[in-house]
Write a structure and sequence with these properties.
- It is a single chain.
- This protein has about 280 residues and is of the alpha/beta class.
- The chain folds into two domains: about 90 residues, Methyltransferase, Cobalt-precorrin-4 Transmethylase, Domain 2; about 170 residues, 3-Layer(aba) Sandwich (Rossmann fold), CATH 3.40.50.
- It has nine helices and 14 strands.
- It has a seven-stranded mixed beta sheet with strand order 8-7-6-9-10-14-11, with helices on both faces.
- Strand 6, helix 6 and strand 7 form a beta-alpha-beta unit.
- The longest helix has 13 residues.
- This is Precorrin-6Y C5,15-methyltransferase (Decarboxylating).
- InterPro entries: Cobalamin_biosynth_MTase, SAM-dependent_MTases_sf.
């Protein structure tokens, strides 16, 4: 391991992940977006400016190993500064996010919610289709309480939750904090041009405009969950029109209680894979 990386590891004052920009800028940025302390080994054409620009919108500071110096800098200033011999960058969050090791598809009551969250049984299936992992960016569109986005972050993905309801945005932040992960929250309708391109997108309701705008970013995978039968065919057609191969399943799970079985809310899940 290089001397520059060792210096940054020591300066972090906490456990760090080390990623290599030579393996790709986007995966390195997504680890920085998801984790609280990451050292990026720089590569040709990928320096502090590219790292700083890529983490705009996340609460991060940088420490750059530039020759013999360690230079603390705001990400936006790293874009315009002239560097001499940068070797590595430490991307550091203000607070330390925990790593969760207690499974996934958490119980529904693990999330504060206005009404109900996507049931754990369906959520497990959705996570399998989204395939969240370190180095991947997931959009959680019409996120509601953010349960899916929080679960993706717990599995190591970088997550942007897009939700126009300000009350729900507060819930997303609270749920992310409760589970020790970082989820960037955008209080708006989805705007593909304003956000980093995702690897996977989850659309929490079958709203046709949201499905179309999510499909337009050409992520590898788009998953849509809807409780309305009327939204199934338009959502499928929108995904197919955007070049996705579409499959789907209708979930009607019932949970075992002391008094018998209690039916959960039926949900249809569509998923599109880019051709």
């Amino acid at each position: 391991m290089s001397a520059a990386v060792e210096k940054l590891r020591e300066a972090a004052g906490r456990p760090v992940e080390v990623v290599d920009a030579a393996d790709g800028l986007r995966p390195a940025l997504n680890v920085c977006r998801a984790r609280s302390a990451v050292v990026v080994r720089l590569a040709e054409g990928i320096g502090p400016a590219e790292i700083g620009a890529g983490i705009a919108g996340w609460r991060r500071t940088l420490l750059v190993a530039d020759g013999e110096e360690l230079v603390p800098i705001d990400p936006k200033d790293a874009v315009t500064r002239r560097w001499t011999a940068p070797e590595a960058v430490l991307c550091l969050a203000d607070n330390e996010f925990l790593r969760s090791n207690d499974g996934w598809a958490l119980p529904d009551d693990a999330f504060a919610s206005r009404t109900h969250v996507l049931g754990a049984e369906v959520r497990a299936f959705v996570l399998a289709r989204l395939a969240p992992r370190p180095g991947v960016l997931v959009w959680d569109v019409l996120a509601g309480s953010g349960a899916v986005g929080v679960e993706c972050a717990r599995l190591g993905a970088a997550v942007i939750a897009v939700e126009p309801d300000p009350v729900q945005c507060v819930r997303i932040i609270a749920n992310a904090s409760a589970h020790g992960v970082d989820v960037r929250v955008e209080e708006s309708e989805p705007d593909p041009s304003a956000l980093p391109r995702p690897d996977a997108v989850f659309v929490g309701r079958g709203d046709l405009a949201a499905v179309k705008s999510s499909a337009a970013v050409s992520a590898k995978r788009v998953v849509v969950a809807t409780e309305s039968v009327d939204e199934i065919v338009p959502a499928r057609d929108a995904l197919q029109a955007a070049g996705y191969e579409v499959e789907g399943v209708h979930w009607t799970a019932s949970r075992l209680l002391d008094s018998g079985f209690a039916p959960a809310v039926p949900v249809t899940v569509l998923w599109g894979t880019k051709k």
